[in-house]
Specification:
The complex is a heterodimer of chains A (514) and B (250). Chain A has 514 residues and is mostly beta strands. Chain A contains one helix and 36 strands. The longest helix of chain A is centred in the first third of the chain and has 11 residues. The two termini of chain A are 27 Å apart. With 250 residues, chain B is α+β, with helices and mostly antiparallel strands. Helices cover 38% and strands 14% of the residues of chain B. Chain B is built from nine helices and seven strands; from the N terminus they run ααααααββααβββββα. In chain B, the strands form two sheets. Chain B has a five-stranded antiparallel β-sheet with strand order 6-5-4-3-7, with no helix packed on it. A two-stranded antiparallel ribbon of chain B has the order 1-2. In chain B, strand 1 and strand 2 form a beta hairpin. The longest helix of chain B has 16 residues. Classes of the chains: A mainly beta (514), B alpha+beta (250). At the A-B interface, loops of A face loops of B.
């Protein structure tokens, strides 16, 4: 009953400063908390407040939503759990029964839910969008976003934009036709859908050989960002299909591996910027776009920062899409180190996959991947979890068949080398790192910065760490004892204490100062 | 208890459903898939750097269900990765093909295994580092089932060129500590903060990396010496015959 009252109260209250209401904390993709109860002076006293175990063995990639004393998380594959955020006690669970043989790429995972008013939204592995009652977990509506039998699935945390739920799709390894879709939050009615590969008659089909665009993928499997002033959504797209053998899809393959700027009301594309034209290494541009307003060459500009999987760091003008900066930030050997004047890479010879294998840096998982970055308005640094690893890329033969794998090749890690990584604190003005915190093996965890002057993340082996946001010095750590594939958040619980929460192994950990 | 029984029932039901196909079309399809996904490490089945598949009893995959499970998920902690890009049906086809390898007659192998056993214990000093049936050292892989896992040619390569393929989990680490002490051992674990080693005497130690001034890892170099010149050609054949005879618990 106590929890019901708490939940009822939460529905009536406006946003409290200790809430975490979007995948990235805000719509601008910052993953930065304004809370500073936990700070450089006291972080050494940070301790686990509670641990909540789940009974699943798939990778636990959720990033919680926090509102008025309740955390809302997804559990693999497509379940939702509400948790009292001071104690870690479960309030309700929504368990989704999935059809047999749902095709999926890289684990039965989900990266989080979205919240608006009294509804919680989850995209499911069978490519539905489901709205749940936030106080009961009951299904309010459930709509089919795409046909999972064609290879579509949703693992992405939706983004709330005004009265709409924006949802993307995975399926880039099944030759699907990528899209980004908007649904009316109250009713589940589709408001618009933007296809991320062209349709017959579109000029962009000329960037694909023959009708290869029909299986072009360019999926939208990581959460994008939103600028209310420009009423524009920014969303990254994934690889063209098939991933590795490219002879059947000659051309730039629009709009794969791109950042799309989309009118939030109509769903029309305002501009695009393609980071990796004609990708052959599966370097999805499925990273979180970070929106900041900063001085650029003496003039205040609206920028979008993008640390890309292809090993280049980009700054664009987010009003126009103009390319402002591109800088190599992780080891690579596939392109000239300098991009051309429009930000297009110049490929080096002998870097395409072959039947006998071609060694390329970075490996297919890239320089960064779905590890969410953070941006601190006080340090003006963009914190990115990076990977340093070579790969050997092979071509193979695949013919498109609906709902089946469409890869035409494979990759292996470069033999004889151990992959490493680092958290890099990148200065957007130069693309250079102010500091780097090395990882003995590359981590799949994202980064949270806080007004307490801290950067939180987890190592690949599950050590939760806190770094000084200006120097990268390690200030605190706690071994969680599992593999980390998730992104930390911060919130204030019912007792008024700031907490840091992260999923690791098969448990959700929440830390606070005693 | 109810849930335990229910889970067990489901497990039985699922495993009963998993049966690798044996029809010609499936085997042919499985062979094509095998060439692309598996042959890089397993070769033709008995001449690759990975486990020998030309054996009626696969150590990690006694049933079709466990074989498909390994193809699907890999073997955690080993170099066997999960399959990427195969449907359930295709994994079954691969399993069907792999089972045909096990039905071929076991390789008849030259050499005298009894002599090989004596060389293993004596001239080779192999037991100093390797264990068989619980007896021996711990500085290299346990060889109790090595004959079921490796082909004769693969065994020969490992003896004459140990660095040709290094089994995951056997990286030798050399550390110098701030105290000046030096540590050498097989790496049991490493993260951002600690390295755990087992030294030549079997002693396990965990050291904070912050306490080390130097850490070298033999990523591409096996700690095993080259034994090519230790044995005559006939002795090598006998030793391989002995190793190939090691098929698990007595």
């Amino acid at each position: 009953m106590k929890y019901l009252l708490l939940l009822t109260a939460s529905l009536l209250c406006a946003q409290a400063p200790g809430d975490w209401l979007h995948f990235q904390g805000n719509q601008q993709g910052h993953r930065h908390s304004a809370l500073k109860q936990i700070n450089k002076a006291n972080v050494a006293r940070l301790k686990p407040a509670w641990t909540m175990q789940i009974d699943k063995t798939d990778k636990f990639e959720t990033s919680p939503i926090a509102r008025d004393g309740v955390l809302f998380i997804s559990e693999p594959p497509s379940d939702v759990t509400a948790i009292e955020s001071r104690s870690g006690k479960v309030l309700w669970r929504y368990k989704r029964v999935l059809p047999d043989n749902v095709p999926f790429c890289c684990g039965k995972v989900n990266r989080g839910v979205a919240i608006l008013g009294d509804l919680i939204f989850i995209g499911t592995l069978d490519a539905h969008l489901v709205a749940l009652d936030a106080s009961t977990g009951n299904v309010v509506w459930d709509v089919v976003v795409a046909d999972y039998k064609k290879g579509y699935s949703s693992t992405v945390a939706p983004l709330i934009v005004k009265d709409k739920v924006i949802i993307g799709s995975a399926g880039g390894e099944f030759g699907v036709k990528g899209y980004l879709a908007a649904y009316e939050a109250k009713t589940g009615k589709e408001a618009w859908r933007l296809w991320t590969v062209p349709s017959e008659g579109d000029k962009a089909t000329e960037t694909w050989l023959g009708d290869s665009y029909k299986y072009g993928s360019a999926t939208t499997w990581m959460t994008g960002s939103y600028d209310p002033d420009l009423n524009t959504i920014y969303w990254g797209t994934g690889n063209p299909g098939p991933d590795w053998k490219d002879d059947k899809r000659a051309g730039d393959n629009l709009y794969s591996n791109s950042l799309l700027a989309i009118d939030a009301d109509s769903g029309k594309m305002k501009w695009y910027f393609q980071f990796t034209p004609h990708d052959v290494h599966d370097w999805d541009s499925a990273q979180v776009p970070v929106l900041v307003d900063e001085m650029w060459n003496g003039k205040m500009r609206k920028l979008v920062l993008f640390a890309n999987r292809n090993a280049f760091y980009y700054v664009l003008d987010r009003t126009t899409g103009e390319y402002l900066l591109g800088k190599q930030y992780v080891r690579q050997n596939w392109a000239q180190p300098e991009l051309d004047g429009k930000g297009r890479p110049t490929r080096l010879p002998n870097t395409f996959p072959t039947a006998n294998g071609t060694t390329v840096y970075p490996n297919s998982p890239g320089a960064t991947n779905f590890q969410a970055p953070s941006y601190s308005p006080s340090t003006k640094l963009h914190y990115v979890m990076t990977r340093d690893e070579g790969g050997v890329f092979y071509t193979g033969d695949d013919t498109y068949k609906e709902g089946s794998w469409y890869l035409a090749g494979r990759f292996v890690s470069k033999p004889g080398e151990e992959a490493t990584g680092a958290i890099k604190a990148i200065e957007p003005k130069t693309g250079k790192s102010k500091w780097e915190y090395p990882m003995s093996s590359p981590s799949w965890s994202g980064v949270l910065s806080t007004a307490g002057g801290l950067v939180f993340s987890a190592t690949a082996d599950g050590d939760m760490i806190a770094l000084d946001d200006t120097t990268g010095k390690l200030l605190w750590r706690y071994p969680m004892g599992g593999r980390a594939f998730a992104n930390p958040i911060s919130y204030v619980a019912a007792d008024g204490k700031q907490h840091i929460a992260i999923a690791c192994g098969h448990a959700l950990f929440s830390f606070s100062i005693e | 208890m109810r849930f335990t029984i229910l889970s067990l029932w489901i497990a039985v039901a699922v495993s009963a459903q998993v049966k690798a196909p044996s029809d010609e079309a499936s085997i042919r399809a499985g062979h094509t898939l095998y060439q692309f996904h598996c042959a890089f490490c397993h070769g033709k089945g008995d001449d690759g750097m990975a486990a020998n598949l030309v054996t009626p009893n696969l150590v990690h995959a006694p049933t079709d269900s466990s074989l498909v499970n390994i193809i699907r998920n890999g073997i955690p902690g080993s170099d066997m990765p999960p399959a990427l890009g195969m449907s359930d049906e295709e994994m079954l086809q691969v399993a069907g093909y792999v089972r045909t390898l096990g039905r071929t007659a076991p390789a008849s192998i030259a050499g005298n295994a009894a002599n090989g056993k004596a060389l293993y214990a004596g001239k080779g000093g192999c037991a100093g580092c390797h264990m068989v049936q619980g007896a021996g050292g711990r500085m290299g892989p346990d060889l109790t089932q090595i004959g079921a896992m490796r082909s004769p040619s693969n065994l020969r390569t490992s003896i004459v060129d140990p660095s040709a393929s290094i089994v995951g989990g056997w990286t030798m680490v050399h550390m110098t500590l701030k105290s000046g002490a030096k540590l050498n051992g097989i790496r049991l674990n490493e993260d951002n903060f600690y390295i755990s080693l087992r030294d030549g005497k079997g002693k396990m130690q965990t050291v904070a990396k912050a306490d080390a001034t130097k850490i070298d890892r033999d990523i591409t170099k096996s700690s095993m010496p080259n034994y090519e010149k230790v044995f005559t050609s006939d002795e090598m054949t006998d030793l391989i015959a002995y190793l190939f005879s090691l098929r698990g618990a007595m």
